[in-house]
Amino acid sequence: KQKKVEVAVMRLFSRFLLLFLIFFVVFVNCQEDQTFEGSWTDTCANCFGGILYICSKNLRNNEIGYVETIEGVYSELGSIYADVFYDSQTDSLYAEGTWYESGYNDYTRGGFRLNLSSDGNNFNGVWWYENQKCLKFDWSSNRISSNRPSSSKECRALYTEPRAELGGVYRRVDANSDDVDSFYLCTLSNEIGDFYTLSYDIGDVVGYSYGRTYQNQLAGQGSWYTDSSKGINSIWYTDDGDLQINFWEVDSIQDLDFTEYLIINSKKISYELIKVDDDPPAGLCLSRQDLAQSDWTTVFTDTVFGQGRLYTCQDGPIVEGVYSEFGFLRGILDATKRNLRGTWVDSGARFEDHGTFQIELHPEFFYFEGTWSVDSIDVDPITWVEKVLDVSDFYKSECYEVNKPERRGQLRTDLNGQYSIGSGTNEVIDICLYDDNVVEGSYEYQGIKGFLTGYWQQEGQTFQAFWYEDDPSIGIEGEPDFKGIEVDRNTAGDGMTRFLHVFF
Q1: d(Cα 103, Cα 110) in Å, to the nearest integer?
Q2: Euclidean distance between CA atoms 161 and 269, whole angstroms
């Protein structure tokens, strides 16, 4: 009996060893025959239409199924960094990683997962924005060549061993000794994020760039400014130890089509820099900061309401904004243009739905910090910190700035009046503001009758309210068919902007 058991164990071990050898051969062959390395079409949803170059680092760690890492560049405007894994069920490779695009803009970074076909001639998968991970977009490309790109710069391969520091003093590689040529680059890393600032002099051209860093502060995406132009840029520490900077003269690459991509890439300016000192002299990284659009016309996070956005616009000493389409803020800057004090108004008509705030913009314009408080509640002010997401003018219309004299000839002093809310003659809303800060209104459109009541704020330019509607097609007896909260503002064009939220 013991001998039979030993024979059975040996047979079982032999079968296990055979299966292991088969799996190993398949695994090795898969890795030999399949690879993401090479050049590909850049034809995903919202892609630019150029070429995607991918380089492999060929690092392996079979204990976690890890095959290699890849670095790549698509249409020269974006970078990808990913780990590649082997899927034994499909006998294929897949890549998971992050993408980054040039510019200090919202929606210029995110993640992706790509599945390589069994013959290695195409891949398909999905990509998403960093702040909208549940919203997926298709990504599929066809292979152009299996050859490794001729230069690692085409893949933006990063210099990681030994650990390189992005910050420092640089000169152009091809600059003469008597040229006016200096680049002062500093990095900042804290609990809010990773950032960089760069001031540079190239002959008669002086400029400034700032933005965010990624990949352990070995690369960055930002916006640049001179006294006559501005645009977006990318910087990265190459695997040969130099710093590469690309400049494009375009405010934002959102909604950029293929023709526009070809035009801006034809005007791209690139510099290859060599580090001459690890420590820039104090203050020189910000010496050209006055060239930048460093004001309150920008987009911030809105962590008070989760993953929303705070859009702000500056007009002289006045700053106005909208947060998460739920409320408005308005404030006045002090002489430094960095300290802002004002009031905020939420949707709704409770006493705790409005208050005051005071915040200060970071000296390098990466975030603000301060406090906000509720007018009717006697508690300590609440800490408020938000990070800059976008410094372009792309979202300026999202501020819904208050109506101003220069926009319509004269300033309507408040929201009192009648407004059209539909195409019909009787589809209007009447708003009445009273001396005790009470606002009331009634409206009708498409046969639906509504009523609102609440409080006006900010000198009658904004009000917050509860609203109720009766819909004859539903006709719930004795109670409104729909109800909710809203916040409204006197906006340009003799109009009123309403943000309505429904209670279900």
Answers
A1: 14
A2: 28
